[in-house]
């Protein structure tokens, strides 16, 4: 993949309304958490999720999230990470900040909003720096 074009089209979707107007999108990205030993752990960054403000609450965002997460390979689902509201994304899709407390990002962020979702949390490093996946 070329730098700058590394979004994951198979996990990224658009929502259109009955008049075929674009009303929402979700994009996913390959990222890695680099642990203190320099080992990179691949993850999928979910988002941004965007919905036309006048249509928020109509279910488009929920449908986009559901479609994206359902498209993950059940044979080898990578852990997913996102920045979002822990109550909302935890309730519907199991994202939580329980394992991200010692993770860092290259810019400012609200630590409690850094969320992860993983079938086996034991594979998640306790500490690390999140950044682009460079294969």
Report on this structure:
By secondary structure, this protein is an alpha/beta fold. It has a single domain (9-132), classed as Aminopeptidase, CATH 3.40.630.30. The protein is built from two helices and seven strands; from the N terminus they run βββαβαβββ. Strands 1, 2, 3, 4, 5, 6 and 7 form a seven-stranded mixed β-sheet that branches. Helix 1 (60-70) links the parallel strand 3 and strand 4.
SSE arrangement, N to C: EEEHEHEEE
- Biggest pleated-sheet summary: 7 strands, mixed
Low-confidence stretches: none
How many H/I helices? 2
Structural shape = globular
| Spatial separation of the terminal alpha carbons | 8 Å
Could you estimate the helical fraction of the residues in percent? 10-25%
Number of domains: 1
Radius of gyration: 15 Å
What is the averaged pLDDT score? 93
CATH architecture: 3-Layer(aba) Sandwich
Give a quick precis of the structure.
This protein has 135 residues and is an alpha/beta fold. The protein contains 2 helices and 7 strands; from the N terminus they run βββαβαβββ. It has a single domain, classed as Gcn5-related N-acetyltransferase (GNAT) (Aminopeptidase, 3-Layer(aba) Sandwich), CATH 3.40.630.30.
Observed structural traits:
Aminopeptidase, 7 strands, single chain, seven-stranded mixed sheet, 34% strand, alpha/beta, globular, 135 residues
Topology:
Layout: E1 13-16, E2 22-34, E3 40-51, H1 60-70, E4 80-83, H2 86-93, E5 102-104, E6 114-117, E7 127-132
Parallel strand pairs: 3-4, 5-7
Antiparallel strand pairs: 1-2, 2-3, 2-7, 4-6
């Amino acid at each position: 993949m070329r730098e700058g074009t590394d979004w994951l089209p198979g996990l990224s979707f658009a929502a259109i309304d009955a008049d075929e107007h674009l009303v929402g999108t979700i994009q996913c990205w390959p990222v890695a958490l680099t642990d203190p030993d320099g080992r990179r752990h691949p993850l999928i960054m979910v988002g941004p999720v965007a919905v036309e403000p006048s249509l928020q609450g109509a279910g488009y965002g929920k449908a986009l999230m559901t479609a994206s997460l359902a498209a993950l390979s059940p044979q080898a689902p990578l852990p997913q990470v996102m920045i979002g509201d822990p109550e909302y994304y935890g309730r519907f899709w199991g994202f939580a900040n329980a394992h991200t407390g010692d993770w860092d990002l290259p810019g400012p962020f609200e630590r409690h909003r850094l969320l992860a979702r993983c079938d086996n949390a034991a594979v998640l490093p306790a500490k690390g720096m999140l950044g682009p996946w460079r294969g």
